[in-house]
Write a sequence for this structure.
């Protein structure tokens, strides 16, 4: 049986990190933490949100699970981060997901999850207009590309219920 990667995609503030944390805390599904050449923000912790590295430390792409370049910075994960058996989650953008699916379906079962949110819900969560505008400029694969779509416009409890329903369906 191939390892299963739950690849989580969505706009800033849609609930990607919350979903990964929920899967880890409630269902013991580990999360792959990506590497980035982006500078660490003050509220971030190395090894939690990302592993923060210098551009000179970026390894050969053949060793990478997925790769994307966004905002002038590189983001990637390594094959060695995927558990040998079982399920893990990975927060990824659509460009990285497309690469992951195109290049590694023979090694991994990939379940693609799109979390969608209304602009009103994102604004209520305090997501600034610059991030919303930036997200509109990202690659969008279309809903048909995804195995699962979860709307997250309501309470955390409702979102958790939807996650559990979808996880049990898979």
């Amino acid at each position: 049986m191939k390892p299963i990667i739950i690849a989580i995609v969505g706009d800033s503030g849609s609930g990607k990190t919350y979903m990964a944390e929920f899967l880890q805390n409630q269902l013991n599904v580990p999360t792959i933490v990506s590497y980035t050449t982006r500078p660490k923000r003050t509220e971030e912790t190395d090894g939690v949100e990302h592993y923060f590295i210098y551009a000179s430390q970026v390894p050969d792409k053949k060793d990478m699970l997925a790769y994307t370049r966004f905002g002038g910075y590189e983001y990637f994960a390594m094959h060695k981060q995927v558990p040998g058996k079982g399920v893990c989650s990975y927060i990824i953008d659509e460009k990285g997901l497309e690469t992951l699916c195109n290049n590694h379906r023979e090694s991994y079962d990939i379940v693609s999850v799109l979390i969608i949110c209304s602009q009103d819900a994102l604004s209520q969560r305090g997501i600034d207009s610059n991030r919303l505008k930036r997200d509109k400029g990202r690659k969008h694969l279309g809903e048909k590309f995804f195995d699962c779509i979860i709307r997250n416009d309501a309470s955390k409890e409702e979102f958790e219920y939807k996650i559990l329903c979808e996880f049990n369906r898979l």
User: Anything to note?
Assistant: The chain is about 30% helix and 25% strand. The beta strands are 4-10, 31-32, 35-36, 51-52, 64-70, 73-78, 87-91, 109-116, 148-151. The longest strand covers residues 109-116.
